[in-house]
Specification:
Elements: H1 4-15, H2 22-35, H3 50-67, H4 78-92, H5 110-116, H6 121-134, E1 139-144, E2 147-153, E3 159-163, E4 169-171, H7 173-184, H8 198-214, H9 220-232, H10 239-250, H11 254-268, H12 273-288
Antiparallel strand pairs: 1-2, 2-3, 3-4
Helix pairs in contact: 1-2, 2-3, 2-8, 3-6, 8-9, 9-10, 10-11, 11-12
Length: 291
């Protein structure tokens, strides 16, 4: 896994496992970020590629943190598990977030979050999920709109919600509702407490990276690889294909951008003929840039 093709292939394979490895997928996202816009440099066979060393080091750190938890066993209730994780990760290790973390790409990269102990809510939640899972805790992610949190126990029965961004602060349903209202203005609904699937978590991580890059036109390279990884997931919004085509045109890759606009128009023509016509017009305009 020394180059772009190798990384993408490994990401694709990991995403299609029966039980996708959330930590590995997030670390492969980070490997793409560390590699930069172009293919990585091949290392001599006897050397460990830097990206592989980063992935191994991060997995070892997650194992180490899990080993620091008390041996609670499966008889421990969700409250006890939540308290143990908060004491270790929030208090002892200092994992938490701040508004400034939203301005850093590193806040969306799992290996960097493990090193800095700072990150976005979803990446801090991934740390909690992976450490707790390794220790045998009944843990799951909760994809609240605008603010990812972690749950312990039975999602549809006795449970405890915590906010890793706030060091593991316990959340009542009212607290969760305030988080959602503050982020989106929408009311809380019971369906929002459903456990998040690993691939949905990874897509949300990539969405955050895309949003970070979209606000920084000089980092369109980051937006492009985040889009391309999103498209490798088994499930993804079809509109991402259109977004990628538009971005290719913006970056001056008119031929590929036009071709992908045409392919997208063909896909949606039967259900959205008006939109398809508009997209074809964009494709013609992109090809005209070559003249």
């Amino acid at each position: 896994m020394h180059d772009t093709t190798g990384r993408r292939q490994r990401f694709t394979e990991a995403a299609r496992e029966v039980r996708p490895d959330l930590a590995l997928l997030c670390l492969l996202v980070a490997a793409e970020a560390h590699a930069g816009p172009g293919p990585g440099t091949k290392a001599p066979p006897e050397e460990v590629p830097p990206e592989e060393a980063r992935i191994d080091a991060a997995q070892i750190e997650l194992d180490r943190l899990a080993g620091l938890l008390p041996a609670l066993g499966r008889q421990a209730g969700p409250k006890r598990w939540a308290e143990a994780l908060a004491q270790l990760l929030g208090e002892r290790c200092g994992f938490h977030g701040s508004p400034a973390d939203y301005r850093r790409l590193e806040s969306s990269l799992l290996d960097e979050v493990l090193l800095r102990r700072r990150g976005l809510p979803i990446l801090l939640s991934v740390v909690w999920l992976e450490v707790a899972r390794r220790a045998g805790a009944p843990v799951y992610g909760v994809a609240l709109p605008g603010h990812f949190v972690v749950g312990f126990g039975d999602p549809y029965g006795e449970k405890v919600l915590v906010d890793p961004f706030d060091g593991g602060r316990p959340l009542s349903d009212e607290d969760a509702g305030l988080l959602v209202a503050g982020a989106t203005g929408a009311p809380l609904s019971p369906s929002m407490f459903a456990p998040a699937e690993p691939l949905d978590i990874v897509l949300r991580v990539l969405n955050n990276i895309r949003a970070w890059a979209a606000a920084r036109p000089e980092r369109s390279d980051v937006q492009l690889w985040a889009l391309e990884l999103s498209l490798l997931l088994p499930r993804h919004p079809a509109r991402l294909r259109y977004e990628r085509a538009e971005l290719l045109v913006e970056r001056g890759d008119f031929v590929r951008g036009a071709r992908e606009l045409e392919e997208y128009a063909e896909v949606i023509a039967a259900v959205e003929p008006g939109t398809a016509k508009t997209v074809l017009g964009q494709a013609r305009a992109a090809r005209a840039m070559l003249n």
